[in-house]
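ESCALATION

Customer reports they have been waiting on this structure for their group meeting. Please prioritize. Original submission:
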Amino acid sequence: MVSLPDDPVLRLAVYAAMALGGLTLVVMLQVLVLSELAARRERHREAFVARWRPRLVGWTLAEEAPLGEPPRRGRDVLWFLLLWARLHRQLRGVARERLNTLFFSLDMTGAVLAMLDSRRVHRRLVALACLGHLASDRFWSDVAPLLEARNPLVALAAAQALVAMDARRAMARLVPLVARRRDLAMPRLQALCRQAGPDAVTPPLLEGLAAPDPAHRERLAALLGSADPARMAAWARRCLDEHHEGESLLCAALACLGTLGDPRDHARLSKALHGDSPRIRFAALKALRRQARPADEALLIPHLEDRDWWVRQAAADSLVGLPGITRERLGTLLEACDDRYGRDALRRAMAEGEFP
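Update from on-call: job pushed to the front of the queue and completed.
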């Protein structure tokens, strides 16, 4: 039998080594157990999908297809809902309606609503995705409170479900929320606005742009591309005439009038070409290009020598796109341009246009 050393320091070192060895064995055992559990769970999931996917596909082809006993265990319910939602995204028309009929025939409503109250974020997201696919406003009162969820992913998923249920009603709640919450991803919000459509987005957006808080209005600028330009035109003209808004809103107003293409706005767009901000000059060039006239050549030529790269490129594109302009005229402008970066921009625009 090996005895411990008499030296206290050496004895402590031996104890530490024994403890470290024991801890290593415990960690290894834990890794092995968790790996085995994960493998068993994955095998069970694959078997579940192999059993249920053909049934769901068969149901989308004919509602009389046999289904068997619906899943009742918590894990199986989650897998079923994930499979149902994934299949729902891949289908259109009658097949989607049959999947919705299947959802109610299996009485999955209670399980989904219970998942909305779960503390686990992924379960709440799955439930919201399912309710969004159902697109039934009977669940409005269950989903609407989650718009105020602290987790931005949950709030955005709730917004998407509400838009699917009732776009107008959802936008009336979502647009004011956009101005208050900075943690909501703007690309997702813009996608939701496009999904809802101009008729649903425009009224609450006009109401939000009348708010007294400049930061509130500035936050809404990114959503203006989804609104109806004809109904936003009065606001856009007032915004450009009074010139009291920030850059983002001025650029959005220019884009709105450019999309509308009303010749009466030509003078406003031309005036914006002389703005101090390169963003505004760039937006004005893009807007003016939609209603360009041959006489606009004199407005565009100075911007070939603009300090901003984007403005130079936009000016070159606008010159090449002028009605009636010829290759010879563009060649003359190219020779007359004193700025080498402006010449490069014009050459690039000519090569990409019809004047190689």
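Sent to customer with the following note: The radius of gyration is 31 Å.
Escalation resolved.
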